[in-house]
Specification:
alpha+beta; 5-stranded mixed β-sheet; two-stranded antiparallel ribbon; 30% helix; 29% strand; 3 helices
Length: 166
């Protein structure tokens, strides 16, 4: 049967490039409070981690060419002659957000729901993926709340169910 994955050398080199970009973005964001100025960096953070997860699984990774398209990333590879494709909308969460992320998919507005179903679009959500066992602080009603956390990236379908990449 026909199997085609992204070559391992290409994946490793691409992951290295993305991690270099992520270091710069994370360094810019980690000591700042979230603001509208950071939206593009937070989005790029989510996109870069999503690409890395695709390369780790051997997918060819394609990026969106136009602004505000229905998907940010497309993963594709062939396994046993079958084409596996994921259309992904990537989201990042600011490292210093003032809440404890639930890692839930944002529900599409009614006018986009049909489009999302046609594209079989899934969503990736990335938050402090590079950090394990850290303390996140949130101020709620004037009180400081701390919680031990782990950063992560998840893939969710339209029903907010976890997707495991093949």
């Amino acid at each position: 049967m026909f199997n085609n994955r992204c070559p391992e050398k290409v994946c490793k080199a691409s992951i290295k490039k993305s991690k270099e970009k992520l270091k710069i973005i994370y360094h810019k964001l980690k000591n700042k409070k979230p603001s509208d100025e950071d939206k593009q960096d937070v989005q790029t953070y989510g996109v870069e981690w999503t690409k890395i997860k695709g390369w780790e699984k051997g997918y060819y990774v394609y990026e969106e060419c136009q602004i505000n398209g229905p998907v940010d990333i497309i993963f594709m590879k062939f396994i046993d002659g079958k084409r596996i494709v994921y259309n992904i909308d990537s989201k990042g969460i600011h490292p210093n957000c003032n809440y404890f992320p639930q890692m839930k998919r944002k529900v599409s507005k009614e006018k986009f729901l049909e489009r999302d179903i046609m594209y079989k679009r899934i969503q990736s959500i990335a938050w402090k993926v590079e950090e394990k066992n850290f303390v996140h602080e949130v101020i709620k009603n004037g009180k400081k709340i701390t919680k031990n956390c782990n950063g992560s990236i998840v893939f969710k379908d339209k029903n907010n169910k976890l997707i495991e990449l093949k």
